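Long-time lurker. I teach an intro course on protein structure, and each term I like to show students one example going from raw sequence to a predicted 3D structure in token notation. This year I'd like something fresh instead of my usual example. Would anyone be willing to generate the tokens for the chain below so I can use it in lecture? Attribution to the forum is fine with me.
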Amino acid sequence: MSGERRVDVQSLHAALDQARERRGLSWRQLAKELGVSPSTISRMANDLKPDVEAFAAMTSWLRMPAENFYTASSSELVDEQPDLVAQLVPLLRARKDLTSKDIAYLEEVIAAAARRFQAGSDARRED
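-- Reply from a regular --
Happy to contribute to a lecture. Here you go:
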């Protein structure tokens, strides 16, 4: 992993907020489930990073890889981005509300969109 990577606090906080709402939890209840202080989550709302243990607890609770919440320099993002479809397929397949046909369709749509975005990105770099 080259370059400077940081925790994208805003994305992590937003993911926690969405999952919290979906589960019908208050912020205080979420903090208790995570095993962190409510002030840890409050500080995140002000873009302050959680400590390593809290970060691990949060990503584990979300059932999402920690890497999903890292940022990098813009050149690194272009050069080292993992394949979008490869990243999303496990998430799609983990969904209980999607049939195998739904998943296959979404994979095709995402792959087509990713190819289009890549082509546009390549064209912009050549200009």
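Some talking points for your students: The two ends are 28 Å apart (CA to CA). The first strand starts at residue 6 and ends at 7.
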